[in-house]
């Protein structure tokens, strides 16, 4: 009897030697989704900063920043409106959970078409799926996204634009692919991300810009009832920027808003920076 | 300015068209690790049953069982001792969390060498990382495994064989890549897997075989202190089968055992079935 080989097959076809990507085996990687306008990758520095921080959190080596910058800049070039996606994984390996002592990162990148039909205003449903609490991964834009995939199925089944995700204690965390802010008495509030959630680039920017705009802001616990009592609600991510939430169903209640003044102001300011 | 394409690059090299595997993007898939002895994939039916159940839990279509059976049987053939790994993912797609309405599964398979240096007896450390609670994914052998990867790093840093994983409430769930049983007053006890953990094939077999062997067994909550008071402790998975735990550090205490009578009996019975 012969010994086993290391050949992997994809749908029956042999793959190049050297193991199978740990991204594919375990979601052992990180990603960034970057808006492109007029041939330029927006907020590239912030995206790469977050990626580096994520690598550190996951115990992965630091990616070669200049290589990433060069590649993403080149991919973006010539595109009026597009979305760059970058994935960095722990690279090819055998089958176990243990990484090699010095894993060689693999990067995947693409410049994809700008999504059609991005809604100007968001109708949001509260997902039944509750986010699990994992401080070791909270904030990180990692590639373990089954929760978001299951939550997205709920959103689609209810024909809404976005889903609101709570944690197991009923605290508001984020949207399925966005962060959330509420405005109450002129103050911006967004949830802490200690146990779950992604530390979004636009979320960070809003918090950073607020003082100069003379807008009070805080990061704190938010409950669904706080949203129902909010004057304005918006959600944000790097592709859609800031979008007002105009309807939300939560706890069997349906609440509606007009796009708020602060929301529109922040939206305008961020778009001018693009 | 031109529109963006759908071309993905891996380390700068263009990949075949058609999107990037959702396994790679999000860990949107499932896997099985199957022992091979004398050219035969052991307990293949059980593995494929679990895979089908996992697909259902994740909302994925049912894989073509005959194709999988044929491929795995053929891969195993001629190998004295080996490990089959099968991964089934939600297939190639664009970048969003939403799946296509009828995703085409992609399968990855390999017949890999039998691991060298599998310890006969396990020295186990309790991981600091606590498993998060996600009933929607509990029991499923899915490809979102960053928790196990981080936990495995702890185990390696302490030069142990395996790590014990607790949930956020301090309940025992499983090992990093195994399930756990304790024996107390002749009774087998293994943790519930309602909030976390993988429903292991050997775990299922042990619970199923116990009555015919006149061994009492139950699935219930286990705390670290229950392990410290146990007469025997063993861990199990499809590759190593059943292995006695001979040392465990938990809560700053170090406990040692000799391989127990029941553990050795079950180990022998399972090996005879191979």
TrEMBL record, chains A, B:
GO term, biological process aspect, one: 4-aminobenzoate biosynthetic process
Catalytic activities: 4-amino-4-deoxychorismate = 4-aminobenzoate + pyruvate + H(+)
Any single Gene Ontology cellular-component annotation: cytosol
Recorded GO MF terms: 4-amino-4-deoxychorismate lyase activity; pyridoxal phosphate binding
TM region(s), chain numbering: none
Family membership noted in the UniProt record: Belongs to the class-IV pyridoxal-phosphate-dependent aminotransferase family.
Function: Involved in the biosynthesis of p-aminobenzoate (PABA), a precursor of tetrahydrofolate. Converts 4-amino-4-deoxychorismate into 4-aminobenzoate (PABA) and pyruvate.
Protein name: Aminodeoxychorismate lyase
UniProt source species: Natronospira elongata
């Amino acid at each position: 009897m012969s010994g086993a080989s290391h050949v992997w097959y994809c749908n029956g076809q042999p793959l190049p030697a050297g193991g199978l990507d740990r991204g594919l085996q375990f979601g052992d990687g990180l990603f960034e989704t970057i808006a492109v306008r007029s041939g330029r990758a927006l907020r590239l520095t912030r995206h790469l900063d977050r990626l580096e921080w994520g690598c550190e959190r996951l115990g992965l080596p630091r990616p070669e920043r200049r290589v990433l910058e060069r590649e993403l800049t080149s991919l973006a070039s010539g595109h009026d409106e597009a979305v760059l996606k970058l994935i960095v994984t722990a690279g090819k390996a055998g089958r176990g959970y243990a990484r090699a002592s010095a894993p060689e990162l693999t990067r995947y990148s693409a410049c994809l078409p700008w999504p059609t039909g991005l809604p100007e205003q968001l109708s949001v449903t509260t997902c039944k799926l509750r986010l699990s609490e994992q401080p070791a991964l909270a904030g990180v834009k990692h590639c373990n996204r089954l929760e978001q995939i299951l939550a997205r199925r709920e959103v689609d089944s209810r024909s809404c634009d976005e889903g609101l995700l709570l944690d197991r204690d009923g605290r508001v965390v984020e949207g399925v692919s966005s962060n959330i802010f509420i405005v109450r008495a002129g103050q911006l509030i967004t949830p802490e991300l200690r146990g779950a959630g992604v530390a979004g680039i636009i979320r960070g920017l809003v918090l950073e810009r607020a003082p100069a705009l003379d807008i009070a802001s805080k990061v704190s616990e938010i409950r669904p009832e706080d949203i129902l009592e909010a004057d304005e609600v918006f959600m944000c991510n790097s592709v859609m920027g800031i979008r007002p939430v105009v309807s939300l169903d939560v706890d069997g209640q349906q609440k509606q808003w007009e796009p708020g003044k602060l929301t529109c102001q922040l939206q305008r300011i961020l778009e001018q920076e693009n």
